[in-house]
């Protein structure tokens, strides 16, 4: 009798541990992925230290891609929140950890020297692995081109990764990010060289791209940081934060695509 009571008790406890019975035979048509963007980072260090930082501390990412060889590590399941974006904003949305997938690439970033910053290039094989991963993520979450952002896009006042040597054009060739038509940019640049738009115009165009940017019409440090973030992506050879004719042309052509 005592044994029978024990079996009954264990059965009841097991039933409680399983939770309520849920019928999953129906699925609503009105639904979509919680993931809205993918944010790219560099780790600023080597692979062993990157793995320690992203698995043992408070900072994390969904994926880490090594440099040589470009192994893809999944560190956080996509249905869970990773702590990679921090204080971040894009298209009016804030604190993007809850709606993004974070991908870290092993890359040392930059070193300060007498002639300024020296940036580390990305191995082509690492970018090949990234593109394959991005294509898979975007397909599964039904994300449109333009959903891939840099950490410097969503936090331009404090972050510069993935940096000016990240080959955004490779992602554009794969159809993953929008890219401005070079001839259209050249035509618009010639027009803007004769008459440069106001700072307020630049701020409005950057906001259309999705950046969090001041709207007071002054070329302050915050606005220059946003300009530099945009230039790192589309004109990496000179990302000085200057509101010039080429940057104006790039903005106008890109925003005309939307």
From TrEMBL:
Xref: PROSITE patterns: PROKAR_LIPOPROTEIN (PS51257)
Reactions this protein catalyses: Hydrolyzes the link between N-acetylmuramoyl residues and L-amino acid residues in certain cell-wall glycopeptides
Signal peptide: 1-19
Hydrolase as UniProt keyword: yes
EC top class named in words: hydrolase
Keywords: Cell wall biogenesis/degradation, Hydrolase, Signal
Name of this protein: N-acetylmuramoyl-L-alanine amidase
Source species: Pseudomonas benzenivorans
